[in-house]
Design a protein that fits this description.
Elements (H helix, E strand, L loop, with lengths): L2 E4 L2 E4 L3 E3 L3 E3 L25 E5 L3 H12 L3 E5 L11 H14 L2 E3 L4 E7 L2 E6 L4 E4 L1 E4 L3 E3 L6 H4 L22 E3 L10 H16 L13 E3 L5 E5 L2 H5 L4 E8 L4 H4 L5 E8 L5 E7 L3 H13 L4 H6 L21 H6 L1
Parallel strand pairs: 3-13, 5-6, 5-11, 6-7
Antiparallel strand pairs: 1-2, 4-12, 8-9, 9-10, 14-15, 15-18, 16-17, 17-18
Length: 338
């Protein structure tokens, strides 16, 4: 009890915090041993010219953008209908359009059957009957809690079927003196969330200021090209709670009227129809993560659409669109009723 062993040395403390993070999941198809994971990108001796990338989450989409930006020919394969599950559908679809327009080969509803090593690289066989030649195959199919070898079961720390440590709102495990935070709990796997949980736990245990961290209205960014910024509920999630108003704007940023680049920005607000509280803000476009950080403060404070409307925009900027959107998107259910 109250003791951990590290490299043969035992350390005893009143409180133990498990914050061991996550590790990449490796695929199980034939030839999976030839696949790299996200950790391997940073130690490659040279940039691969042809890349096959498996997965549809943050890491897969960001790596597709990075490798494409470095000049590689990228094929991204995802077994689902559309990548970035959990993000707003309009944003997901718009990103797919932009990535395809940039030259990234996206293959949805597709999976890998096997990877074959050949003299000058690899042959990737897919479920649609096609083959792809690659210099590198990256598996970014998810991450799992990093609990191997910790002896949690013997100690009495309960975990889920996925291997995530079970915790309450304060981060306490099934043992009263053992806590867990961050990705090892598999709740909201974002670095700033783990940092905030660590601060809250320190305040609770040692600062005489007990508090918890809310997992609602946590902003996030996906650093693709273009990037995504999002905070709050998606349209689909909000609609399950009741009627919503949706404001949507798609435009080419003003500066690209000069550069001539065909880059699009999409912004979306999801508003509770009854209270007019803004439930979600979503953006695809340049500087989206920077912009959404400020919008997140408004959502945490409970801002309404009228609060957004009263705010003067910064001109000329893309961000001003969040406070100038006035036209609601037609409600398909209301139209169907008519």
């Amino acid at each position: 009890p109250h003791t951990v062993e590290v490299d043969g040395r035992r350390v005893t403390a009143r409180h133990i915090v498990i914050a061991t993070g996550g590790v990449p999941v490796r695929p199980g198809f034939p030839g999976a041993e030839h696949c790299l994971v996200s950790d391997d990108l940073f130690s490659l001796p040279r940039r691969p010219d042809r890349v096959v990338l498996l997965g549809g989450g943050y890491i897969a989409c960001e790596f597709a953008a990075i490798l494409h930006g470095l000049g590689a020919k990228v094929h991204q394969i995802y077994r689902g209908h559309l990548f970035l599950r959990g993000f707003d559908d309009d944003i997901r679809e718009a990103l797919a359009e932009e990535m395809r327009a940039a030259g990234i080969d996206l293959r949805f509803d597709c999976d890998v059957v096997r990877v074959e090593k050949v003299h000058d690289g690899f042959i990737v066989h897919t479920t649609d009957g096609r083959t792809l030649e690659a210099d590198a195959v990256f598996a970014a199919i998810g991450r799992r809690p990093n609990i191997a070898g910790l002896g949690l079961e013997a100690a009495g720390v309960r975990v889920t079927d996925r291997g995530a440590i079970m915790v309450d709102e304060a981060g306490a495990t099934s043992l009263p003196h053992v806590y867990a935070l961050g990705d090892v709990t598999d709740r909201l796997n974002l670095t700033p969330v783990a940092t905030a949980q660590g601060h809250a736990l320190a305040d609770t245990l040692f600062g005489a200021r007990p508090r918890t961290v809310s997992l609602e209205n946590v902003p996030t960014g996906v650093f693709t090209l273009p990037p995504i910024g999002a905070v709050g509920l998606t349209e689909a999630a909000a609609a399950k709670r009741g009627p919503v108003d949706v404001y949507l704007a798609r435009f080419r940023p003003l500066r690209h009227a000069i550069t001539g680049r065909d880059r699009k920005t999409l912004m979306k607000l999801v508003v509770d129809r009854r209270t007019q509280r803004v439930l979600g803000a979503h953006m695809l476009g340049e500087d989206a993560p920077e912009i959404i950080q400020g919008i997140a403060i408004a959502l945490v404070m409970g801002a309404t659409k009228q609060d957004f409307d009263r705010t003067i925009g910064v001109h000329p900027s893309a961000a001003e669109e969040f406070v100038t959107m006035r036209e609601k998107r037609p409600d398909p259910l209301a139209e169907a009723a008519e």
